[in-house]
Amino acid sequence: MGSAPALLWLRLPRAVLCMFRRRCFKILAGIGVAAVLLGVAVWSFPHQVLTLDSGPVKADVLVVLGGGSTERAKRAAELFKEQAAPAVFLSGTGDGESSKRLLLEKGVPEAAITLENRSHSTLENAEFSVPLLRALGAKRVIIVTTWYHSRRAVACFRHYAPDIQFYSRPSYFGYARADWKRQGIKGYVKSEYGKLLGYWVRYGIAPF
User: Fold this and answer.
1) Which residue from 141, 159, 182, 195 has the fewest beta carbons nearer than 10 Å?
2) Which DSSP letter does residue 168 get?
3) Phi and psi based region of residue 93 (left: phi greater than 0; alpha: psi -120 to 50; beta: remaining)
4) DSSP 3-state helix, strand, coil percentages of the chain (rounded to 5)?
5) Per residue in 120-171, pLDDT tens?
C-alpha cells in the first residue's frame, strides 16, 4: 500500500492537479526570467556591481594588491601623497619589487614600504596580510586594487579581520567601456563575476 500523502495526491481532482502544475510552471518560468534579467543587469552595469569606493578616508596603512599592470602602485602613490595613510603595504608575489620601485620613483620613502611576497591569490593576500597588519597595530586600512577587483578584495579582508576597518580606494584604469578592448579589461570583468560567486560558495565570502 502507498503512503497516505501519496494516496491523497492520487485522489486530487484532475482540475486541481492541472492548476497546481500550471502554477509551478509559472513560478519556474518567473524564476528563469528573473535570472535572465539579473544576468543582463549584471553585465550591463559591472561598474556599479564590481566597484567599491569608500571615498576620501584616512587610514593607518595602504594595502596594495598584486596583479594588474602598474595602475595599483600608481594609485597608492597618489593616495600616499594625499596623506591618506603614512605607510604602504605591498601584498602579492611576482610584482612586489617592481611595484616598490615605482613607489620609490613616485616619491614614497622606502621606510614607509613593506612587502608581503608569499600570496598568489586575493584570498591569500588577505590571509597572509592580516597577521602582519595586526602586528603593526593597524585599525584602519585602505585596500588599493583595480576597480573591477575592489569588491571581492575588500570582502576577503573583512572576512579574515572583522576587527579591522577596511576601506577601498581603487584605481579606475580601463574604467570606460570604450577602453575595455584596448586595455584587455573585458576578460577580467567577465572572470571577476565567476570569482565572486566561487569565493562565496567555496569560502563563504559574501560580496554584499
Assistant:
1) 182
2) E
3) beta
4) 60, 10, 30
5) 999 999 999 999 999 999 999 999 999 999 999 999 999 999 999 999 999 9
Q: Please name the amino acid found at residue 11.
A: R
Contacts of 100 (CB under 8 A, 6+ apart): 90, 110, 113, 115
Alpha-carbon Rg for the chain, nearest whole angstrom, is 24
List the one residue out of 192, 166, 189 whose CA is nearest residue 89: 166
Q: Give strand ranges (E) for the chain.
A: 61-65, 88-91, 113-116, 140-144, 165-168
| E strand segments, 153-199 | 165-168
Amino acid, single-letter form, for residue 7: L
Work out the pLDDT band at 181, boundaries 50, 70, 90. Answer: confident
pLDDT tens-digit series, residues 17-64: 677 777 776 666 555 544 444 455 556 689 999 999 999 999 999 999
CA distance 67 to 60: 23
Strand partners, 31: none
- The class of domain 52-203 in CATH terms is alpha beta
C-alpha 149/C-alpha 87 separation (Å) is: 22
**Shortest CA distance to 116 belongs to which of 143, 136, 134, 89?**
89
> What are the extents of the domains in the chain?
52-203
